[in-house]
Amino acid sequence: MKNTMLILVLFLLSSCKGNKDKQGTDIPLIPVFTELQNKAKAIFGVLPGWVDSPISPITDEKVQLGKTLYFDPVLSKNGTQSCNTCHNLSTYGVDNKSFSPGDAEGTIGVRNSPSTLNAALHTAQFWDGRAKTLEEQAGKPILNPIEMGIPDEKFAIERLKNSEKYRKMFASAFPEDKDPVNWNNLTIAIGAFERKLITPSRFDKYIAGDDKAITDKEKQGLQDFIDVGCITCHTGPALGGNSFQKFGVYKEYWKETKSAKIDAGKSDISKNDAEKYMFKVPSLRNIAKTAPYFHDGSVKDLKEAIRIMGKIQLDKELTPDQVDNIFAFFGSLTGELNPELAKAPQYP
Ligand code: HEC
Ligand code: HEC
């Protein structure tokens, strides 16, 4: 009898401990799948551990180099800014400003800095999608006169070639290349690093079978988010990032956001009137931490952003309860970045 009890206790203990799935998410030994969990898994899918590059395989050396570049103000003209200035990895990949000032001259940009976290899951980069990949995107802020302000590619490469550390790091990241310190490799390395910036959260544990990972209120918020139709645009493992939609389907957006300037979005690039006011649907991962909201950071309060979305994207006045529940659900999307990736490297 005593023995049977002991075995039972041991069994219970081991089933509480849990194990890890492929993504490193803790899931219980006996996963539970309710209808809502199954539904959420089918709608959003499983968050990958990282996103492979179609142009150049990701290696530890490339990631290490990309990380060093990401944090290094050497990539701005006056040495005052790194990627991390506007996409701070210790504050969820953003600077929490409506607009970000650029290198030395301090000229203010015209759009809100989106997070680099989970950006690898997007089908295109920038609010208007004008860069197809992270690698294509990575070079742009460096050469943007109101961002990092480097005059041209050659200028940046000469600087890096003057550094013994970078000569070594590029050579070990790109061992096949005769002249590894070049612009293309710089963008590949930054891209490789960003492809690892994925932040699993309690929501991922929940859809992996841990029914207790999110609270009842968060579950209700998830249910509301599905039922009112937010998922027509915010789908996939990033809850967005995979389509372009008109901002203000039912009402001009600036009337609700009180935006100071009217930004036409995608049509400014494509010159196609059908794309007027179209923006990339943003990811909602870590959304509770990345205020202010929208492409111009015009709304500071997340509940207000939720209310506006219901009104102008779905023509629905959400009840205060619905707004509260969705707000709670968003808290379950606050994730964790591997601390090794987030930690700023030491510069000599
Ligand atoms: C001065 C601030 C600033 C700096 C420095 C900066 N960025 Fe950005 N970043 C922005 C802004 C603003 C946008 C949005 C611009 C737009 O969509 O038109 C952006 C967009 C992005 C995006 C697209 C994300 C998405 O959701 O579409 C990525 C990725 C990114 N930056 C990475 C980087 C990298 C890598 C560096 C360093 C090489 C860098 N940024 C430097 C402000 C900055
Ligand atoms: C028809 C498509 C569509 C629907 C439906 C939709 N959204 Fe959005 N959502 C967008 C677009 C596009 C943006 C970006 C708008 C901009 O800033 O230019 C956005 C932005 C947001 C933002 C701000 C994100 C950020 O990083 O600034 C939040 C929060 C949000 N949506 C929540 C919701 C909620 C909650 C619902 C349901 C009530 C919803 N959305 C329904 C398309 C949609």
UniProtKB/TrEMBL annotation:
<keyword id="KW-0560">Oxidoreductase</keyword>
<dbReference type="Pfam" id="PF03150">
    <property type="entry name" value="CCP_MauG"/>
</dbReference>
<dbReference type="InterPro" id="IPR051395">
    <property type="entry name" value="Cytochrome_c_Peroxidase/MauG"/>
</dbReference>
<keyword id="KW-0479">Metal-binding</keyword>
<dbReference type="InterPro" id="IPR026259">
    <property type="entry name" value="MauG/Cytc_peroxidase"/>
</dbReference>
<keyword id="KW-0732">Signal</keyword>
<dbReference type="InterPro" id="IPR009056">
    <property type="entry name" value="Cyt_c-like_dom"/>
</dbReference>
<dbReference type="GO" id="GO:0004601">
    <property type="term" value="F:peroxidase activity"/>
</dbReference>
<protein>
    <submittedName>
        <fullName>Cytochrome-c peroxidase</fullName>
    </submittedName>
</protein>
<keyword id="KW-0574">Periplasm</keyword>
<dbReference type="InterPro" id="IPR036909">
    <property type="entry name" value="Cyt_c-like_dom_sf"/>
</dbReference>
<keyword id="KW-0575">Peroxidase</keyword>
<keyword id="KW-0408">Iron</keyword>
<keyword id="KW-0349">Heme</keyword>
<dbReference type="InterPro" id="IPR004852">
    <property type="entry name" value="Di-haem_cyt_c_peroxidsae"/>
</dbReference>
<feature type="domain" description="Cytochrome c">
    <location>
        <begin position="216"/>
        <end position="334"/>
    </location>
</feature>
